[in-house]
Design a protein that fits this description.
Strand content: 15-25%
CATH superfamily of the largest domain: Creatinase/methionine aminopeptidase superfamily
Distance between the termini: 46 Å
CATH architecture of the largest domain: Alpha-Beta Complex
Number of domains: 2
Number of strands: 18
Number of helices: 9
Structural class: alpha+beta
């Protein structure tokens, strides 16, 4: 059982399931340790998946996952800080040793501090094959000193695929938390409908959404909301662009993209009109709603993700709309965006247990048409929509 200070946590059994699955896969490839680092909770889910503790606010957490021992974790703290936990701590579960270092991503001369600690652990254990998890996202200041220290001693391999394929399939416990996140976002949207009115700024609306989410158990997340007069598109914009004041007749596009209990992400998007929606806006929403349904009908286990993406592009272009050049559907879990991507460059096929966000959209100078909801892939295809908010443009 985790410490009662923890707002949310997964069970010991769930963590042990993950560790066992990864260690089995490591054994098949002869990998003796995995090295990973994250510094953000939004797109930093590897560290949380292994430790049930997030990396946040730009402060790096480095994890060495040993094939035969509890983990080594390196995080912010005093020079020389060290705690021997032997895998029995109720906060740092599964961690054998916690090493501390006052390193900051904003201070270049400290970048090697964490690397020196990690290199010593790997070198002292005599590892010959080390897997890097998402190596392209690992800082040069971490990887280069480690590789230099272990030159001619160890081989480094990309272990991302190994971890991603396990991480993408959600357990029954994870699915429970994912459903709770979707329900939380429905409640957040209901709060927004009760709050929004002429005279508020966009930031006032998204702040109400964030507050409600955190009261209900969310820890992190983003809320993109941009308003415009009817006849001008209202795209998603970040907080620093949410200074516009709403007026009667305006519409606002809102993306709720926060996590819920235990840190799992889903996302939901709808459009709200302070008055009467134009026929163009309603028609645009109906098109993306149909596009969502079109993709969902093809999301069956065993289907290559790239085939679904090709079918979506055909659906859009047949209606004179642009093909998807970015990303309209993807996996979610501890990351806002994780594999599989429903895109032409994805090598995965869909499998039961995946959590997918499906958000087709398009924009013109006069409308931003978008819909976003989450679905769990079941044995025969997507289950019922996890979000219960009606799929429509909301006129208030």
């Amino acid at each position: 059982m985790a410490n009662d200070r923890m707002l949310n946590y997964v069970s010991d059994a769930e963590l042990e399931r993950r560790w066992a699955a990864v260690r089995h896969a490591m054994g098949a490839r002869g990998i003796e340790a995995l090295l990973m680092q994250n510094n953000s909770d939004w797109l930093g889910g590897y560290v949380r998946w292994f430790t049930d503790l997030p990396a946040t606010n730009g402060y790096p957490r480095t994890v060495i996952f040993h094939a035969n021992d509890p983990m080594t974790v390196i995080e912010m703290g005093p020079f020389g800080g060290r705690r021997e936990l032997a895998g029995r701590d109720d906060v740092h579960r599964g961690v054998g040793e916690l090493l501390l270092s006052p390193a900051f991503l904003s201070v270049a001369y400290t970048h090697a501090y964490d690397a020196e600690l990690a290199a010593k652990v790997l070198k002292d254990r005599g590892y010959r094959t080390i897997g890097l998890v998402a190596p392209g996202a690992l800082p040069y200041g971490l990887v280069a000193p480690i590789k230099n220290a272990l030159e001619d001693r160890a081989e480094f391999v990309d272990a991302s695929e190994l971890v991603d394929r396990i991480k993408a399939i959600k357990s029954m416990e994870e699915m429970v938390f994912i459903r709770k996140t979707a329900a939380l976002q429905d409640a957040v949207f209901a709060k927004v409908l009760d709050t929004i009115k002429p005279g508020l700024r966009d930031i006032d609306v998204t702040a109400a959404a964030q507050h409600e989410g955190q009261i209900l158990g969310s820890e992190q997340g983003i809320f993109l909301g941009g308003s415009a007069p009817m006849g001008q598109r209202s795209p998603f914009v970040p907080r620093y662009m949410q200074g516009r004041t709403l007026k009667a007749g305006d519409h606002l596009s809102l993306l709720i993209e926060n996590n819920g209990p235990a840190g799992f992400y889903t996302e939901m998007a709808r459009t709200i009109v302070l008055g009467k929606a134009s026929n163009e806006l309603i028609d645009g929403f109906e098109v993306v709603k149909q596009a969502q349904a079109h993709s969902l009908a093809r999301m069956k286990p065993g289907t290559p993700c790239r085939d679904i993406a090709v079918a979506h592009d055909a659906f859009m272009t047949e209606r004179g709309l642009p093909p998807e050049l970015r990303l309209y559907s993807h996996g979610q879990g501890y990351d806002m965006v994780e594999r599989p991507l429903i895109r032409g460059d994805e090598t995965m096929t869909l499998e039961a247990g995946m959590n997918l966000s499906v958000h087709p959209g398009y924009e013109t100078p006069s409308i931003f048409a978008v819909i976003c909801d989450n679905y769990l892939i079941e044995a025969d295809g997507p289950g019922a929509c996890l979000h219960k908010t009606p799929k429509r443009v909301f006129e208030i």
